Amino acid sequence: MAIIRVGLPGVIAVVVAVACAASIAQPGRWSAEEIEAIGSLWLGSLEPLPPDPSNRFADDPAAVAFGHRLFFDTRLSSNGQVSCASCHLPGRDFQDGKPRGTGVGTTDRRTMPIAGTAYSPWQFWDGRKDSQWAQALGPLESPVEHGGDRTQYAHVIAEHYRGEYEAIFGPLPDLSGFPRHAGPVPDPTAREAWERMTPEKREAVNQVFANIGKAIAAYERRIQFGPTRFDSYAEALVRNGRAPEGVLSRDEEAGLRLFVGKANCTNCHNGPLLTNNDFHNIGVPIAPGLAPDRGRTLGAPQVLSDEFNCRSRYSDARPEECSALEFMVAEGDALEGAFKTPSLRGVADRAPYMHAGQFATLGEVLRHYNDAPAAAVGHTELERLRLSDRELAQLEAYLRTLSGPIAADPELLAPPVRQ
């Protein structure tokens, strides 16, 4: 141990500094800056649900009920066995616990949870959609998810949901003479049938298709996160200026201190939903058996050209209400290998992790952040944290306090009675 000789004023200064640091570091003792940071993560600080100007039916109770039915309907698939709820299971935080999503085939990426996504300007790991309703349309036409096509879905609506649809969106087009299967999809027969349809008929089907997405989005907007043990702790800390006793363990408190401090987690996982809804390259390895994934580099041009984006003819928004699309970063090295920051709420219940399930446990994720390996695609933003094993365990302990219920009407969490 080194001994440093200083004069009396210096000794006093050192003692005072050490005493203050020890006081702040004691369990349950927080600085004003730390309390402010923790308060910003509290679910109670979440702003009211913002409107979706691109979907004027987003808050229509009839559209919510209709979307609930569509979300669970396996008729919206090529084999009659896949629904939105097949991958977004209500009992599993609206995801499936698999490394990669499975529908009529297997995707190249993990199923993202739904809760809280109404607050995000971008959907999917690469942000290739800019609204919940546009996102809902993608899997319906994916050959490995629902595997269906647009006229198929229009016929399902006409045959099984005509009354509900027309009460919300107005009259359905006359689909007599329309192909049973047609759409701009990979299936060559359906694509050829779509190309033979007149522009007017394609437009009529597109409008029904867009409205399907808008109804599903109205339902998904009701799926939010409920409070957790961390929120109970944060609320008491913010309101009283001191930590409550018996809510978090010492290790959980220590992990929280690391989260808002030394570990730099709030650089990306900030706000009450614990995500900045942006895209980052964190050097995640390539999943075995898959090609390198370029992430946002692929998603950015897709959302700009999407026929159902905020500026499209199917959007209800005015051009000036599409600022996220207008000012998005569409190119650059920073997009290469970058993926959307997911919410950490409920993270302990959502293994495996990353965009293709590359890590099986939270411990693996934290070691990856700690080591900051070079990226296989693009350049990682991470820098080595040099946390000890004990600190990593404490950080994981804190993350486990973020588990809590889904906040939604209980009726919306169960399959509706099928008609």
Annotate the secondary structure layout.
Blueprint: H1 8-25, H2 32-41, H3 61-71, H4 84-87, H5 132-141, H6 150-160, H7 162-169, H8 188-196, H9 199-220, E1 224-225, H10 229-240, H11 250-260, E2 279-280, H12 296-305, H13 323-327, E3 339-340, H14 362-371, H15 389-399, E4 406-407
Antiparallel strand pairs: 1-4, 2-3
Helix pairs in contact: 2-10, 3-9, 5-9, 6-9, 11-15, 14-15
Describe this structure in words.
The protein has 419 residues and is mainly alpha-helical. The chain folds into two domains: 32-49 and 225-295 and 336-407, Cytochrome Bc1 Complex, Chain D, domain 2, CATH 1.10.760; 61-220, Cytochrome c-like domain (Cytochrome Bc1 Complex, Chain D, domain 2). The protein is built from 15 helices and four strands. The chain has helices spanning 8-25, 32-41, 61-71, 84-87, 132-141, 150-160, 162-169, 188-196, 199-220, 229-240, 250-260, 296-305, 323-327, 362-371, 389-399, and strands at 224-225, 279-280, 339-340, 406-407. The strands form two sheets. A two-stranded antiparallel sheet has the order 1-4. Helix 2 (32-41) packs across helix 10, helix 6 (150-160) crosses helix 9 (199-220) and helix 14 crosses helix 15. The longest helix is centred in the middle third of the chain and has 22 residues, at 199-220. The radius of gyration is 24 Å and the shape is globular. Mean pLDDT is 93; it is low at 1-24.
